[in-house]
Amino acid sequence: MTTGRIWQFCAALAVLGVAGCGSDRAADEPSIYGALKDAAAPALARATGGGEAPAPAAPPNPDQMAARALAANPAPLILAGLESSGATQVMAMTGENAGMRSYMSPNMQALILRGGILTGTKGLGHDLSVVDGDSPSLIRARRAGQATRIHRYISGDGVERPLPMTCNVTVGGAKSFAFAGRSWTATQVGESCRSGALTVENSYLVTADGQIPVSRQWIGQQLGYVTLQTIRP
């Protein structure tokens, strides 16, 4: 991944409380890895109300949110941060069918994932109906290459509006981190997609067996990006 994309992804991880990005190549690439902590600080300050105006209330602590969720719910759990609203919430799996998992929040908003990759949303407004394309196979295999992605949305008149994109999948360095009592080692994978003037930059941490414990994925032009962190697989 490029330096800018890694910084952006690590800023999102900082908001969710994941330990700072790192790599066994940190000493060899100080321009990328040595600056990650500083790059994450402005985004974290904005998310927690830092800057010129004081925060009206303490931001939610992701570790505490995860601990409470683990104690209260035996289902698979994720922590989702919607960047457009600044909201971070725990979502529990409510159903699984043919590899598709539905995760729902207490306020009945839902994300649908296939193997950790977002394929749809419900209850958010401007929802993503479904995602097609061949980029997920490259991402989960941690393999660079060209791919396609099609986002489909249902407009207010009930007509499906497809958004086709061409994508370039790239593979970066390794990273180890811990969250919610679980340790992970994963590879940074980037997915850069274009459709006309629109550019989408998705980022993933992918394990050797194809799991995606952390990601930052684009929903749509109105909702923007969601950052996802696995609490319980």
Walkthrough of the structure:
The two termini are 26 Å apart. It is globular, with a radius of gyration of 17 Å. The model is unreliable at 22-51 (pLDDT under 50). Strands 5-4-3-2-1-12-11-10-9-8-7-6 form a twelve-stranded antiparallel beta sheet. Helices cover 21% and strands 46% of the residues. The protein has one domain: Beta Barrel (YmcC-like fold). The protein has five helices and twelve strands. Strand 1 and strand 2 (87-97) form a beta hairpin. By secondary structure, the chain is an alpha+beta fold. Keywords: Lipoprotein, Signal. InterPro entries: GfcB, YmcC_sf.
Q: Share of helix among residues?
A: 10-25%
Task: Please tally the helical runs, counting DSSP H or I stretches of 4 or more residues.
Answer: 5
Shape: globular
Briefly note the CATH topology name: YmcC-like fold
Which segments are poorly predicted (pLDDT under 50) over 5 or more consecutive residues?
22-51
CATH class wording? Mainly Beta
Query: Distance N terminus to C terminus?
Result: 26 Å
